[in-house]
């Protein structure tokens, strides 16, 4: 592949990716409130943590989007620990042939 063709392809991919990011609308989430002080036809929305008036373009509120499902851990019943004893007969201290490790 020629160098100019590779450069043209890279510029095309970059411009397509940047154009998609620039043209994307910001996410406006509905803000649940009991009082609506916005003009007729608008409702409270959040954009980047700021509350303003507008028309939401997301079906959920920001709190619903950020809510994480709770994962319950499995709890296993506690079992009593039993000490295992050696099958060897313990040697008395000072007896020949006994080794303590």
Explain what you see.
A hairpin with a 2-residue loop joins β2 and β3. The protein has a 3-stranded antiparallel beta sheet with strand order 1-2-3, with no helix packed on it. The protein has a domain of 64 residues. The protein is of the alpha+beta class and 101 residues long. Keywords: Signal.
Give the tags.
single chain; 101 residues; 3-stranded antiparallel β-sheet; 3 strands; 26% helix
Give the strand order of the largest sheet, numbering strands 1, 2, ... along the chain.
1-2-3
In total, how many beta strands? 3
Proportion of helical residues: 25-40%
What is the CA–CA distance across the termini? 72 Å
Question: Uncertain spans, ≥5 residues at pLDDT below 50?
Answer: none
Radius of gyration: 35 Å
Determine the number of helices (DSSP H or I, runs of at least 4 residues): 2
Largest sheet: 3 strands, antiparallel
Shape: elongated
The proportion of residues in beta strands is 5-15%
Structural class: alpha+beta
Please trace the helix and strand order, writing H or E for each element: HEEEH
Mean pLDDT: 76
Keywords: Signal
Signal peptide: 1-24
């Amino acid at each position: 592949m020629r160098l100019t063709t590779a450069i043209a392809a890279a510029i095309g991919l970059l411009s397509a990716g940047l154009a998609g990011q620039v043209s994307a609308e910001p996410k406006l989430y509905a803000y649940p409130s009991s009082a609506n002080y916005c003009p007729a036809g608008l409702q409270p929305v959040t954009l980047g943590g700021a509350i303003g008036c507008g028309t939401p373009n997301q079906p959920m509120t920001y709190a619903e989007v950020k809510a994480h499902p709770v994962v319950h851990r499995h709890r296993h019943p506690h079992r009593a620990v039993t000490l295992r004893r050696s099958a060897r007969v313990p040697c008395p201290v000072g007896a020949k042939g006994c080794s303590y490790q």
